Amino acid sequence: MGVIVRRKRAGVVLALMTASGAALAGGIVNAASAQTPGLARQAVMAAPTDLVGWATQGGGTTGGGNVPATNVSSASALTTALSSSSAAVIRVSGTISCSGMLKVTSNKTVLGNAGATLAGCGLNVTKASNVIIRNLTFRDWDDDGINVQYSTRVWLDHNTLSNGHDGAIDIKRSSDYVTVSWNRVFNHDKTMLLGHSDGNAAEDVGHLRVTYHHNFFDGTNQRHPRVRFGNPVHVYNNFYRSVGSGGGYGVASTEGAGVLVEGNYFENTADPFHRGEASSDPGNLVARNNHFVNSGAGDAGGSVASIPYSYTLDTPSNVKSIVTASAGAGKISV
């Protein structure tokens, strides 16, 4: 079984080991492209931001790039900046009270300054590509916290989300090449949906490839994530603390999806992962190297496609301390 591992610290690639492989029934072989130029492009693109996972694919994700930042502190200014047809780096300050969903267009980086909060509204990444959203606090939204639909190459990183109406981070409708990393969600029910509905196969099969890593699911109830159709979906090094106490669960794979649940830390979580959910048919789920404390064993089966990118897997028993120390808004310098 071959694994490509590339560890980055402060934007420097420290180690690179290459191998190749293919999916196996009941398991998965991590494999990345053997094309050296492709790997080189990913390393250069990821280095400034420590981006890992599916958002490195399909040309990579750079957001607004190095354009001068636009500073906003009101709902009207934020709405205008997000809807611009030009590439933009948008720096959010203070608490912005708003409602509904603010549309985010292509080639945008949205960065929260210290304490930046969206209260009452969410961000809607729709029919867009190359979007980065980092270091924001979302609370009390009246629709979704972050919604991604008909969009590709999106990175959602180091955000904190709580007490919203519907999904915290929902990804659907043929979206692809997305990484969801180092976010904290608490005081919330429906956390992360992947795939709009059971009847949306025509749009979604062959898409919905998402990486979820180093997220902190803190007492939330369900959908961490709930997956339809996407294959492979990679769920690794996340910390689940007291998840599903309201009758929910950790990860669900449905409707033919392929989900690799790897190196996570489950604490006080009776149902860490399973196949099928409600009226949705079972998908495939491969579980390996997970750490369980006072938690159930989970339900796994089937096979999952190969992971095409390089990544470093933290020791599962260390994931709790790593994630609690670093996940959520306010933990990075922007």
From TrEMBL:
Cleavable signal peptide: 1-25
Subcellular location: Secreted
TM segment ranges: none
Domain spans labelled Pectate lyase: 65-272
SMART domains recorded: Amb_all (SM00656), PbH1 (SM00710)
Keyword Flavoprotein: no
Molecular function GO labels: lyase activity
One Pfam entry name: Pectate_lyase_4
Keywords of this entry: Carbohydrate metabolism, Lyase, Polysaccharide degradation, Secreted, Signal
Family of this protein: Belongs to the polysaccharide lyase 1 family.
Protein's name according to its UniProt entry: Polysaccharide lyase family 1 protein
Species this chain originates from: Sphaerisporangium dianthi
Lineage: Bacteria, Bacillati, Actinomycetota, Actinomycetes, Streptosporangiales
